[in-house]
Model the fold of this input.
Amino acid sequence: MKFKRAEIIWLVASIAVYLFFNIPGVPAYNDFTGSIVHHTIGFLLIWVVNYVGFHKICKIYRARKAPDEAESENKK
Amino acid sequence: MLSTTTLWVCIITYLIIVLGISSVVHYIQNKRTHGDLFKAKLPWPQAVMTYIASQMSTWLFFAGPGGYYRGGFVYFMAEMGWVPMFMLISHFVLNKVWALNRHRDYVTPSDFFADRFQSPALRAITGLIFLASSLPYVTSVLVAIAQGAQVATDGAANYTTVCIVIGLAMVIFTAIGGFKSVALTDTIQGVIFIICIWFIALTCLGIGFNFSLPTALKSIYDNAGPEWFSMPGLYNWVPYGYRFGYPFSCMIGLSVMVPHVFVRCCYASKDLDTQRKVNKLTPPVRLFTWFGCLIVGIVGIALLPGLEKSTTEMIIPFLVKDIVLQAYPALATVLMIMFFVGATGVGISTADSYLLVAASIVSDDFIGKLFKIELNQKKKENIGRLVILIIGVLSVFMAMNPPDLIYTLIMFACAIVMPLFPILVLAIYWKRATKAGAIAGAVVGTILVLLTYFVWNIGNTWYGAIGVLGSLVATVVVSLLTKDSTPEATTDFYATLDRGLEEIYDVDPAAK
Done:
């Protein structure tokens, strides 16, 4: 199984963002502003990176149509 | 608040409806295809909703709102941080198992491990681990429903009676229906219960804060304290270790490895489009649903701060009794019925999924493949039904002595299966992984999870995270020290996997 470059970028970016979001020690205990900022940015990054990555991967790895399905599309 | 008569009428009406659906699906399935009790190929709406509903469980009405009450904003964000990672795990791991399964026709989660490593011992070990996760999960449902019944009736309902009746109902429903009917009722109930949680959340928000979420949040800041918005939270519930261990355990345990979820996200989709819809639609559906729970938690802590930790999971009935009842008594009764029937339904739906997969593990993995006893489909299903009954009875007994929090039971069920995840990944990507390595990984990982919980007493911080690390190291080290005893089977496994992927993917030739 060989990976495409987009897959590797997606994998590395997602893990990096996930670690940034969940790494122990950040933000400091009882830091109200730090908590709001860290979690809001982290939340947005994780969702955006995962959806953009998944969308790109689905374009590279298109679902192969079953032979009868492809045939009926060709007829159209 | 509710009389015991009302409570039993609600339970019986609900049970008649689901048993009716179950019987109809069972009849149609048998008439058309002589369908299998343990497997089905689902279209996308069912595949998406049964995946979500199988995880709602007691979370939706109990553990979730209670968790957000205690853990606050950080706890919710910790959860929503792992949710979209499901797409990544799906593409790199789950969809590959799904592609392989088109040729292998797996039934139980252990089938995959036993196939890759050609090991009856690994089948037995993984089967036992998956079974071990069933009991606490099913128990959590009984505990939640029985406790909910007590709160809803001001203590009039008998805890033991509710446990026994609900346990019996689960057993009958699962034994009659099978996978297809469980998936169908999951879909219907899933939609209804999402509506229920949002109705309850918006009603409480409307009565308490005139539908203004910012006002509710300001009230928390002013009255309960700003600690609710930061770590470690008002109840010291989210320290740094937990902030890492909890989302990691949910991402691996809850969303992939618990057995009833595993069969849904790896085996159940009817085609790749369905599989991908499960991958991309479940995160926003989960975000939407869990946000409803968060609103209940927010309104709860804003209006009723200072609850004891062990009572926070009953925040919905407390809100209904203490807040809604004063303003709108009739609406309070409707909400309480909605809460109780919703809690019963969503709990039973998850427990059924669990019971079904546990039954398939015993009848397929142990009796059929491990002890090699030839059984026809009918006998296999009857043994499965017997297993469903035994686990149901054991869960009722366990529910008689519940822990402080329902949450604890759910998370232990997730933690115990987590060490199998590194073996799953290595099985797909590392040809050098051996049978001995996989067995060592499963055993070491499980022992570490048990030590985390029962010896080191840090289970409620790290859950299965230490077990995952131990399993990864043990699998790699022992694999490097041993040789593959069935190289031909390994070659065949990877050839089938490659063929499976070629059949489902039309790869863009321009992509590097």
